[in-house]
Amino acid sequence: MNRAIYILLLSFFFIQCDVNEKDKDKAVPFNDVDGKYIHLETENIYLFVPKKVKLFSISQYKEFIDSIEDPRVRKIERDRYLNMKYGIENTYVMRSEDLELDVTYMSIPYIRIDQSVSQTLLQLLNRQHKKNGKVFGLESSFSRAGIIKKGHDRIFRAIFLYKGIEVLTGEDAQIYTYFYVINRNGKTFVLSFNSKKVYDFDSYVQKIKL
User: Fold this and answer.
1) How far apart are CA 149 and CA 199, in angstroms?
2) Which of 42-51, 66-75, 83-92 has the lowest mean pLDDT?
3) Which domains does the chain have, with CATH numbers?
4) Most buried by CB count within 10 Å: which residue of 43, 92, 110, 183?
């Protein structure tokens, strides 16, 4: 596994999976969803996201981190900020103003998505989640993982649900996490969605334009 992939996986927030889950190649139907395009000019890619999501510059993201009161959350977000600024290039963070939805994008060198790669991804994600789980005390449940086929696209997808006390508010919360590694038009990129509400993120991914 490329070292860059290992580093980028460790930069994502709230991730877990079951390494015993078997990947399955499958075709998945996609629906028309409401949203907007965000153009990442250096990547020449148009991401399709819910309308309330906005792209953060590195300086704006730092301001957001400085506003976080909980030191545990601030440290996790600062690690991601440092990875954006000094680590792997071409990382972008998007959020809704109400902090209900978080989207992270990262481009990586091309990898052919197959079952071997999927199993390695699952192992790395599981390891990172155990680390984050100890910090936040969240209870997680694994939904499913597999390889989606759509035309010439190959998409690794893993879906999880997190339950627990949200450290920012002290209230009960549910966090849905959708993690994707996508092969499209000879490129590979990674998307992670963390949301307090259910969205059809598969359809948002399908509407991405290169």
Assistant:
1) 20
2) 83-92
3) 3-206 (3.40.1000.10)
4) 92
Pairing of strands 139-150, 25-27: parallel
Mind spelling out the 3-state secondary structure of the chain? CCHHHHHHHHCCCCCCCCCCCCCCEEECCCCCCCCEEEEEHHHCEEEEECCCEEEECHHHHHHHHHCCCCHHHHHHHHHHHHHHHHCCCCEEEEEECCCCEEEEEEEECCCCCCHHHHHHHHHHHHHHHHHHHHHHCCEEEEEEEEEEEECCEEEEEEEEEEEEECCCCCCEEEEEEEEEEEEECCEEEEEEEEECCCCCHHHHHHCCEC
pTM of the model: 0.80
* Predicted confidence (pLDDT) per residue in 18-65, tens digit: 333 344 445 556 788 999 999 999 899 999 999 999 998 878 888 888
Nearest to 18 by CA among 103, 130, 166, 181: 130
Q: 105 is written with which tokens?
A: 């994008």
